[in-house]
Write a structure and sequence with these properties.
Blueprint: H1 3-21, E1 31-38, H2 46-70, H3 83-86, E2 93-94, E3 98-99, E4 105-112, H4 113-186
């Protein structure tokens, strides 16, 4: 290799690295971000207080993310994650926490819009599946009710026929008893 090229290499490498680091903003995923801050619990050992503050910050960040998904401010949600958004808030990730000088911990959570959309589609598919199952179950119930009504009508008709037959047999039995009593009266010895 020519010595002049060796001298140029150090100048060309930074250009190549800088070129590789350029990122087209349009190619980056769009994400929702929310931040939460947790304060350390007084009276706890430092390590435990820091962990508790971090967990509190994560919970607050998730609550704030849920509020964004709902299109509300965190104060409008009343501090709770609503069931309506629980299924949508999946696939998030926490960025590394920041320890602030006063001992509080700041945590940022992000959820790619593409993941939010996928969660929404999955929930919509589950809702459709459940609606289809509900519709099929209602149809089976209606079929069972109709079958029950037919069986009930058949049973009622059989009961009515059995009651008529029983009444006829009782009438015949009464006639036989009467005839037997008349015959017994005719066969009795004369005085």
């Amino acid at each position: 290799m020519h010595p002049a090229i060796n001298l140029l290499i150090p100048f060309l490498l930074p250009l190549q690295v800088a070129e590789e680091k350029r990122v087209d903003p349009a190619s980056q995923p769009v994400v929702l971000r929310a931040t939460g801050i947790g304060k350390p619990t007084p009276g706890k050992p430092a390590a435990q207080a820091k962990l508790m503050a971090r967990r509190a910050a994560e919970v607050v960040a998730l609550r704030n993310l849920a509020a964004q998904v709902q299109g509300r401010t965190p104060t409008e949600t009343g501090g709770t994650l609503h069931t309506a958004t629980d299924g949508l808030i999946r696939g998030y990730r926490f960025l590394p926490p920041r320890d602030l000088p006063d001992g509080t911990v700041e945590v940022t959570v992000e959820l790619p819009l593409q993941q939010l959309h996928a969660n929404h589609v999955e929930i919509a598919d589950r809702v459709k599946h459940l609606e289809d199952e509900l519709r099929a179950t209602r149809q089976r119930l209606e079929t069972a009710r109709q079958h029950h009504a037919r069986v009930q009508a058949v049973l009622e008709a059989r009961i009515a026929a059995a009651e008529r037959e029983l009444a006829e047999l009782r009438r015949l039995l009464d006639e036989l008893k009467s005839a037997a009593q008349e015959n017994a009266g005719d066969e009795s010895p004369a005085p």
